[in-house]
Input
Amino acid sequence: MSTKAEELRERLIRNFNEVPLARETREPLYDGMGARLARGTAALKLGASIDVLEPGKRGCPYHLHHAQEEMFIVLEGHGTMRVAGEMLAVKAGDVVFVPPGPEYPHQMINTSDAPLKYLSISTRDTPEVVEYPDSNKVLANARVAGSDFGFARMNRLDTDLDYWDGEP
Output
């Protein structure tokens, strides 16, 4: 393979079966292995990760996006996609499309007795606002993808300030 081909391969291709997975645990509900696949690639507007959830565990907090769109592709196992307060069964081969907006809060849950493996794919639109209905939190994110430049803050939705608060 030429040097150019090797460089292109490094910037454009990831094999989700070969990337090292990192464990992320927060008992009692969250325990899984995953890897962000787009980091270090040429991707500018897409994010992707591979996730493996242990039986009975959840992938992330129940949340909704105001800008980003997501897609989940179930590769192995079966579980439940909690969406808009409903529990939808998912299995290997299912593709779940979640548009942005308050109509689609979502969360992947492994309701089976075996690991659940899936790909998460998303647009990386910024600025982004993410709401967490179970905990009444909101994330405001205007970070530039792949850098430390920008702004990101997590707060509670019930801590509104007056526009003039703290101003001289």
Summary: Helices lie at 3-12.
